[in-house]
Amino acid sequence: MTTSEEIQQGVDAALAKLGAQAAPRPGAATRPFRVSSDRLDSYTQKALQDECDAIVHARHGDQNNIINRAAFNVGQLVGAGAVDEDEAREMLLSAAQAGNHPEGRARPSIESGLRAGTASPRHPWPPVSRTDEAADFRDLVDGQGIDWSDLEHGFPEDDEEPADGLGSEHAEDRENQDRSPVPGLIPEEFWVARTELDHIRRAGHSRTRSGDVALLTTLTRLSGMVSHRIRADTGIAGYASLNLFGGLIGPSGIGKSTGMEVADRLMPAPQGLDFIDGLPIGSGEGIAEMFIDTVDEETGEIRKGRGGTETPVTRKVRKQVRHNAFLYIDEGATITHLMKERSGSTLGETLRSAAVGQTLGQTNASKESSRYIPKGSYSLGLLVGFQPETVAPLFEEVAEGTPQRFVWVQVTDPSIPDRAPAWPGELEAWHDAITAPAGDETSSPVLISFDQAIKDELRAADLAKVRGQVPAEELNPLDSHAPLMRVKLSSLLALLAGRRHVNAEDWRLANLLWEASCATRDAVLEYSAAQRRAEQEKRTIARIQEEVRVDHAKQLAEEKRTDRAVERLALRISAYVHANGAQSRTQLRERAAGREKRLLADAYAYAQLREWLVKADGKFTPGPVPPS
After folding, report:
1. pLDDT in the model for residue 367
2. How far lies 486's CA from each of 234, 493, 502, in Å?
3. 425: left (phi over 0), alpha (psi -120 to 50) or beta
4. How far apart are CA 430 and CA 269, in angstroms?
5. Which residues of the chain have pLDDT under 50?
6. Are β-strands 501-502 and 244-249 bridged in parallel, bridged antiparallel, or unpaired?
7. 492: Cα separation from own chain's centroid
8. pLDDT at position 298, please?
9. Rounded distance, CA 465 to CA 480, Å?
10. CB contact set of 220 (below 8 Å; sequence gap of 6+)
11. How far apart, in whole angstroms, are the C-alpha atoms of residue 434 and residue 448?
12. How far from 377 is each of 271, 414, 444, CA to CA, in Å?
């Protein structure tokens, strides 16, 4: 019978062989980077080295956040005049390359971080002058507003209040402060950039919910309420729809659905707007159907009645009667189930079309079953809550382009304070900006304009892609919709502020949002890959264990068959010796069949063990016990 030790030995040997063949983890840093410059003092060089080291060793899924944070810190040194901006940019880019981070993703994070850091210079720099001859430390840092009275009391004892000001009852808060940041969190510089953004985060925190979730819910809700005639004009291709799809990533039970309620209170639907609010999704056909209703339509004929009365003749028709909708799905598994397992499902195709404002539905021979929603005639926001385990099937549709049309945020928010802030009230500035002037469906669209520098940047990037000038390693299929997504985000941020013009700050903030989305997405992909590896390892171990059991069983069976064959051969040659007298090995070998010759040595040993034979003078003679 197979023992657990024998099985485990077989498993360990097989896994060791597999481990020896394993490839190195993709994205791991392979090249060191050393900051070296004759123009920098030792303080500045050390500070730059620390930030570059952080970039080189940034873990997978959090690279953009780390790069942006490092660039912000270096930007503060640029603002203080400690390092030249071009030199700082070159060093940060070199560190990103040393960490195997794609330049196309690293450069925007570096630029935005440098800009923000330069605007907030670090003073004084260096912290303590190394050239000052003053002997007393107080003289070196005099004028910095330091309270020297603490020197009179020395260091606190173990039972005194911790230096961070948190008592023992807040030990968990101190632990939270020391934990690594969650990959993909929207950075602090985004929230402090504008009052309405801080307003949204405070609204989320007042309900003990993530500020990131409150923001994405607000933006997707806004995209469903904005007039369908309002579109973005970047000078590239056609006018862009503002339809926005958002994905919330987090485990069950920590506030994905209740986060939506925060946006409901922040941004209630305007009075008079025929707005589908929070409807769950059912099918691709259902998305088109929600914009349609049966109405009475005049035929142009007149029915004459008594006394000369005339009544217009009407008929019942199905047609598009509404233009605004916001959909919310609490469990993303619903979408993936409908897309993957329902035969003939059109949901994936409909979602991809709806994300860019294209035509929905289909025309059938029967008018009653026809659903036709022309492109540009609707505004749609979609928010989906995913658990990390349920989102993986959506990323299998990269070739079709489904996950690229989503903005992703984490549900976890370490910045939620212990004490809930007061509810900040409704947002105000957006109402007029989302309403188009009076007009019918044939009226010209109302365009959101962009700073010329933004249009130039978008055009240059588009030309490089169309001309095939983008390096193959930077053509990540998951980033194929990145320019369009930044256009949508920046336009919605402008509308949130009450404007229909996207300026440089809108564009910078949209880039920060998109970088956070990409980091969240990458963290989800890494998690899914780790899950797949774990499942594969479990299957591999189970397969190896089964193979070890089978092999061991075969070995035991073979051993049993061999033992019986040896016993039979020993019995036969012993009987022959007892009948014919002493025999040499050669004589006995001649008596054995060809297939038995390999068993002779064991047969001799077995016959002697049973005392059937005795070896004397180089021959086998009859033993005291005759074979039975």
Report:
1. 55
2. 11, 10, 11
3. left
4. 11
5. 1-2, 18-29, 128-135, 137, 140-144, 155-156, 158-180, 365-366
6. unpaired
7. 23
8. 83
9. 10
10. 244, 245, 246, 326, 381, 382, 383
11. 11
12. 20, 40, 12
User: Would you say 362 and 370 are in contact if contact means Cβ atoms under 8 Å apart?
Assistant: yes
Q: What is the pLDDT of residue 181?
A: 60
In this predicted structure, what is the pLDDT of residue 27?
42
**Alpha helices per DSSP H over 146-255:** 171-178, 188-191, 195-206, 211-225
Q: What are phi and psi of 440, to 5 degrees?
A: -100, -170
Side-chain half-sphere of 17: how many Cα atoms within 13 Å?
A: 8
State how far the Cα of 92 lies from the Cα of 86, in Å rounded to an integer. 10
Residue 485 to residue 245: CA distance in whole angstroms:
10
* pLDDT computed for residue 31 by the predictor: 61
The alpha carbon torsion through 115, 117, 120, 125 (nearest 10 deg) reads -130
Strand partners, 297: 315
* Contact criterion met (CB below 8 Å) for 187 and 69: yes
How far apart are the C-alpha atoms of 40 and 45, rounded to whole Å? 6
DSSP 8-state assignment for residue 583: B
Here the tokens at position 145 are 């507003």
- The C-alpha atoms of residue 487 and residue 233 are separated, in whole angstroms, by 9
d(CA 472, CA 67): 22
